[in-house]
Amino acid sequence: MIVDTNYSQALIELSDYLKAHPQELDFVQKRIDKIMKARHQYLVLANQLLDVMESEPENAQKKLEIIAQLETVEKNPTEEQLQFIRQAKFAAQFTYYRAQFRKILDESVLLVDKGEYSQAVTGIQKGFDMYRQEFYEDNPKSVTDRVTQTVNKINSECKEYSGIQDRLRNSFNALMNAIKAGNYRDASTAYNSFYKEMANFARLRNAVQSDANSLRDTFVSLQRRNPELTEASYLPFIFRFTLGLDSTDNSGIIGAMDAQFTKYLEALKPEVYETVSKNKLITIDSSNVATVKQNELPLDKWQNISNFSNLGVNINSMYGLVNFNDKKDRKFENYVKSMNYAKTAASTVNQSYDILNKYQQINETLKTIKQPENAVEGIRSKDSYANQMLDCAKQYDNCASQALALLQAQWFTGYAKDAEASADVFEYNLIDTHYSTVNKALYDACNSASQLQWKNTASYFASAATEITEYYQNEYKKAEEMLANHLPKEASELIAKTEKELNADAATLIQCRDTLLKSTIDKSSFTREENVVVDSVAKMNGFKTNSIQTAAKCNQEILLSQRALNEAELRYNQALTAFKKGDYTAARKNIEISSSKYKESFDHQESESIRSDADKKLLALGQQINDAENKLIVAEVRQLKTKAKSEYYNGNFEKSESLLAQAKSRWAVTNGEEEDEEIKSLQALVETALSMKTGRVIPPTAPLYPEMSQILSIAHQYFDEGSAMIKKGNKQEGVSLLNQAKKKLQEVQLVYPLNQEASLMTLRIDQLIDPESFNEMFEQKVNAAKENYKIAERAQQSYADLLDLYEINPKYPGLSSLIYNVKLELGLVQKPVDNSSLVKSQQLYREALAIFNSSGSDQTKLRNALARLDEAIALNGNNDQAVLLKDRVQIALGGRASVVLSSADEAKYQKAIQELQKNNIVEAYALVEQLLQTPANRRSAKVLDLQKKVKALL
Length: 954
Fold this sequence. Notes:
Elements: H1 7-20, H2 25-55, H3 60-73, H4 79-113, H5 117-125, H6 132-138, H7 141-163, H8 165-181, H9 184-225, H10 234-243, H11 252-277, H12 299-317, H13 335-368, H14 377-380, H15 385-407, H16 410-421, H17 429-484, H18 488-518, H19 527-581, H20 584-604, H21 608-649, H22 653-671, H23 677-693, H24 705-727, H25 731-751, H26 756-769, H27 771-788, H28 792-808, H29 815-826, H30 835-855, H31 859-875, H32 880-893, H33 903-917, H34 921-932, H35 941-953
Helix pairs in contact: 1-2, 2-3, 3-4, 4-5, 4-11, 5-7, 5-11, 7-9, 8-9, 8-11, 9-10, 9-11, 9-12, 10-11, 11-12, 12-13, 13-15, 13-17, 15-17, 17-18, 17-19, 18-19, 19-20, 19-21, 20-21, 20-33, 21-22, 21-23, 21-32, 22-23, 24-25, 24-26, 25-26, 26-27, 26-28, 27-28, 28-29, 30-31, 30-32, 31-32, ...
């Protein structure tokens, strides 16, 4: 037992032995002394341990050596001893193992820093036996077996990890060299090998991590059952050796593995960036954007950029193979963003090249588009020149928008900001410059081309719009002119035809307007043209409105024209019916109304054909009416002339004048202003006769009749009183009264010098005052009249004086004979026809008869015959043969008056009436003179009547 250091049991056995063998006291004492000496050694070691703990607290190894000796001193130490040893050992072990743990980890970190990752892992494995004995002593076999299995697995995985180092290193170097060489094919192959090794590496690493976590889970479970279980034990040490410490970079087996994993990837990533960023790209800017060829584009460079940037992303994605989130050893936090940026640029630049190709294609297309000479036709059809231009402009717009979108893309602009703000974001000067330059050049070129194309299109639109609006303006102006020229039907047809075209062209212009208004391009270069197009639409709408109004006016004019035409035809038929019935007055009235209605119809709607037909039939019917009525008028006028002649020679001058006026009026019905020589001669005789009586008597209708009557009454009163005084012998007073009467008579004679009453009373006054002087004066007056009656200016005065003298003294010698001679001279009595006149008159008749018989309808011969007959009748008013033949000639000549005017002259006549009513005398006179240029109009009673009225106002 002593040998086994089971001292307590040995002392019990010695005590029992001594009791049984007292004699063996020395023997027992000797054994006891040996035991006590051994136990004293325990005290020495215990004191020594205390001294070391006091003087060398960090010397855990020395403490553990002493404790080991203490544990061998006695097999069954006391509880106090055991407690002391246990506490001392725990404290010493903890201090020692902790130091060893730190040392092993630090050594492994140094190895990791040197790149000796496998050696670091092997060194760490040496610490796996710390607290191992205590763990196995303190835990059941089921736990210790499971832990043993897990630890063995970790050791096996670490061994496998060491075995892959050469393959891992070689695959890394192969990939690194291929990347540096810029050979993507080799790099791709090397990447596949590298990935395979790294995936295997990651598998081992993840397995080790999983095993370590399993050990940690076991510790947690044990600690849950035994709360006194501390970190200073086997499991915490071993899973910390495996997982490493959070406070120490690259510590533990996992730390070493992760450091190697990260080191490889982080070493490859910048090389990939260098390879991507060093690709040289040609410059595409404003100088060559229109000419650079597709085969000159750096597509291979961009493919290389895309490939390597994708490779960079793949390399970085290997981090996904391992189960850790620690990124502290990664130098390029924004690496994926940088690689994706280059990758995106490589894929997006193809869009730029597509835009470039499209831009150049549009340029070529524009060269093939030919501008038509007619701008209007250039905008009308769907495939018109304008639409082709516009399509090119829109394509330019689209290209510019696409280029601008590429320039403003968030991935591009955002990356530039990120690169400027953070050093972790790679810069791609060559890529950025090329990308921005080509898109800026495309944007500027397309925008400029679009701007020019839009300007040209707007200019073309404006030109076409101007032509279109001018065309319709002219067409509607023509329609309005037609309407003003009384052609509403033609104007309506033109409007209907134009309106169909206008609707289509208006729609086209609206499309042109909307195209320009909806354009989002800068319009400053074609604002004027845009305004022209906008205004043209407004004008077209105005044309539509005006055309509706004009068309309505046309329809109204056509309706009014037709209404007037219908009435004109009705009145013509009525005139024709009246003519056939011999009702010439009704015929004349209706034919006048018909003419007026035709004129009214033509005022609304001109028609050459209808006008020509109307003129022909109206003039023809008018002539028929005139000729038929002329036969009656010739006979009627003959009767009136005969009666007038008879009344004249009977001294009934007023009655003769009235009959001649009737004859002249009736004659004018069919002969107008063409005078009848007989009427003219008779009127001259009547006028002379009446002139002899003018002023002899004051008619009651005279304005001064009341005043003159009163004066004559006073004169009579003075005369009667004076005459009475003289008869009474009071001559002086009677003469005075007679002189007063004479003064009153002179007042009358100042106004009416030929007044018979005043003249006779004056002669009687002179006779009463001085009879002898009166007789001398009487003779002088007779002689003066005899001298003066043949002088035209004095004939009326002479004739009046002779009549007054005859009233005073009808028996005066030769006075009656003188008065008869004066009457013969003045034509107041019919002269006897001498024989030569009779012969000459008869000769003229025969000549006229011969001419008439051979004349037929020859107007010249008939007029020649008429002239001879007028002369024959003038020579012998009683030549009845001449009178009868004249009537026949005048019937043969027919009525020479114009019953109706032509429609054109009727319009001119109405215009003259209007001008006269507006007091435009000169204009009215000019129109009348124009009417009189036509011979037939010179025989129109109404035209001649209008002429008189106008001349009277001039």
